[in-house]
Structure formats: C-alpha cells, structure tokens
Design goal:
Elements lengths: L1 H5 L4 E5 L1 H5 L1 H12 L4 E5 L8 H7 L5 E2 L3 H17 L12 H4 L13 H6 L3 H10 L14 H13 L1 H12 L3 H13 L3
Helix pairs in contact: 9-10
C-alpha cells in the first residue's frame, strides 16, 4: 500500500462509511496526505457526509459524486480533467473507458436508484414543494418558471462555473450568503 501511494501521481478516495470505518483506508489516505499527494474524493455512497478523520482530510477538496450510473457517466470526463489538472498529462492517464472502469457492478448496490431521472420530470409545482420542504419558500415567486430540467442545469452550472452561479443567485434571486448556502445544500441533496 505504501508503495502504491508513493508511486502515484494522484490518489482517488472512495468516500463512504465503509471507507471511513476501514483502518487500512485511513492509513492509505493519511499516508497520501503526509506525502503531499493530490487527493481527489469520489463520493460513492448516497447521502453520506464525510465526518471525523475523513471529513477533516477531504473537507475542502473538490469532489465528484458517483452514486449512480448516470452520475458516473457524467463525471468520468471531469475526473479525467481533474487528474490532468493535478499533474498528469492525458498521455499518462489510462485510456480505459467509462464502461471498463465503472460498470454497474462497481456502483454500490444501495445506490442504484438514481434520483437524477425523477428530478428531470419535476414540474414547477414540484420545485415549489421542494423549496418549501427546504425552508426556502420565499423564492417560490422568483422561481415560478423553474422545473426539474432547469434545476439539473443549475447543478451543472454550479459545477462548471461556481463563481458565476453564486453571483447569479445573488443578482437574480436576491439571495444572501446564508440563503445561497441553504440553496446549494438543497441542490446537493438531490444527488444530481
């Protein structure tokens, strides 16, 4: 395990409760951190929020959600880009396909149901209910034309250009920092 970390350019960490509970995984992740290896967290368990040693280790790192097949397919290229950004050239990245690396067998069985597809079908009324459920009903009037497809696009925009996304929430919807954080948290719970 030590040799694998020492010889790696980047360490991918599969963030889940099982990973956190594993002494071997903790040793590997801690060693990678002490060796100053770039760590890329991959969230592989729905609704899991890293805490304890794992939360402290990855707390500020950019992460990728891989909790269902569609998120794996959507994030594969982004993960490759992140690896490249962390020091690997595309020539050194294993040219394996998404299918080879992330077959359905590798997705945790309790995460096979992907809420992404149901969100796409949401109407404006569903979004209104979602806002109410997340204690953000003050925004029902300014988001009256937002449906599930637009929510999915908002999530994509927040990942591609976060600064622009946050500034638009402030300008278009009049959100302050706390409200933006609540809204982003509610979006993240959708596991899109």
């Amino acid at each position: 395990m030590a040799a694998a970390v020492e010889n790696s350019a980047v360490v991918l960490v599969a963030v889940s409760q099982k990973y956190k509970n594993s002494n071997s995984c903790r040793t590997e992740a801690t060693y990678a951190y002490t060796k100053k290896k770039p760590i890329i967290p991959l969230i592989v368990e729905s609704d899991y929020i890293a805490d304890g040693w794992l939360g402290a280790l990855i707390g500020t790192f950019k992460y990728f959600k891989l909790t269902c097949e569609s998120s794996v397919q959507n994030e594969f290229r982004n993960i490759q880009k992140e690896i490249k950004n962390r020091g690997l050239s595309e020539d050194n990245v294993n040219p394996a396909s998404e299918t080879q690396l992330f077959s359905g067998k590798n997705v945790p069985s309790d995460d096979v149901d992907c809420p992404h597809s149901s969100v796409l079908g949401w109407t404006a009324d569903d979004v209104e209910k979602w806002l109410r459920d997340n204690l953000m009903s003050d925004y029902n009037s300014c988001m009256k034309e937002v449906n599930g497809e637009i929510l999915v696009q908002m999530v994509k925009l927040s990942k591609k250009t976060p600064e622009f996304f946050y500034s638009q929430l402030k300008m278009d919807f009049g959100m302050n920092l706390v409200e933006i954080l609540k809204f982003v948290n509610a979006l993240e719970k959708l596991n899109i």
